[in-house]
Amino acid sequence: MRLTRRHWIAATAAAAFADSERYRVGITTNTRGGWESDVFLSFREAREAGYRYVESFFHYFKEFLDRPDDLARRMRDTGVHFVTISNGGPMEMRFEDPARRSKLIEDHLQLVRFIRRFGCSHLKINMGGRRPDGTTESDLRNMSATLNELGRRITAEGLRLGVHAHMWSQFENRKEIDYVMAHTDPQHVWFVLDTGHITMAGIDPVELTRTLGHRIIEFHLKDVIPEHRGGARERRDRNDPMKDPIFFELGKGGVDFPAIKAHLDAIGWRGWLTVELDSSPFRPPVESARISRRYLEETLGLSVA
Q1: What is the pLDDT of residues 243-286, one digit of tens each?
Q2: Beta bridge partners of 192
Q3: Is there a cis peptide before residue 132, judged by omega within 30 degrees of 0?
């Protein structure tokens, strides 16, 4: 029987919400060093490396906004399904500016309605780039108000909103995380914990996992060097990821992934564990993906494929 787009989306949703899968493993594939310029090549090679779910960014798919059937056909050809599609340029992303709130919400709801067609259950977002003067108290109030409104609207669309703390963005450090989590509605605003960015922001990802618990909707899994274990002592300026990488395949030793998983096991957490690597300067991205897969399976006992 020919697999139609409707059947394919139904299969995606069923797989994503299978009761037997507490931990659903995916991979973000915009890895510099070979995957950043051809998104469908990255999907095919991720599938070759054993992954069934992929996460990507809006700019790769803006041409498909009015042609979702064409994207569904391309996805069927690659053999993978979406975890989610993140926001990004050319979308409005200045969450701290109330004058841009209406446009920002409109842009993000358009993306939500698009990814819903592909069985996605949440939208993961980044904030805009960090200004030289950083994030002020006024910024945090405005960001929280925008997130609350956007989260409420996304909930009404049947999905959930997950906000991602990211180095060099307006939402980066522990003060900012604590403020936003305290001033947003937990029924509408969730958290994406990136083990690499959290560590490089000086935060222990194990402690933050214990603090936020079920408010975490997704993890981005990347490692750092052992010297940064428990949180980097100094903030890093933006690096050149191909010449001076700070994030690595799982198993480098800087993130205590067994402790994170032990806590998630203990609280009965369910959600996405999404492997991510910003760059792969030492080997092809497909081989980096295989290294992280082996760690997940052999060290953490997770099923990837």
Answers
A1: 999 999 999 999 999 999 999 999 999 999 999 999 999 999 99
A2: 164, 218
A3: no
Phi, psi of 261 (to 5 degrees): -65, -35
Write the CATH number of the domain with boundaries 5-298. Answer: 3.20.20.150
H helices present in 29-127, as ranges:
39-48, 68-78, 101-116
Q: Provide the Cα torsion 124, 58, 113, 99; round to 10°.
A: 80
Distance CA 221, CA 292 (A): 9
DSSP SS3 for 82: strand
Give domain limits for the chain: 5-298
Question: At residue 110, what is the residue type?
Answer: Q
Amino acid, single-letter form, for residue 298: E
**What is the rounded CA–CA span in Å between residue 199 and residue 82?**
26
pTM metric for this prediction: 0.94
**Strands, E assignment, 71-186:** 81-86, 122-125, 160-164
Q: What distance in Å separates the CA atoms of residue 290 and residue 280, rounded to the nearest whole number?
A: 12
Instruction: Judge contact between 129 and 170, C-beta under 8 A.
Output: yes
Name residue, tokens 């920002």. 104
- Token digits for 50? 């054993």
160 has which bridge partners?
122
Residue 237 DSSP one-character state: P
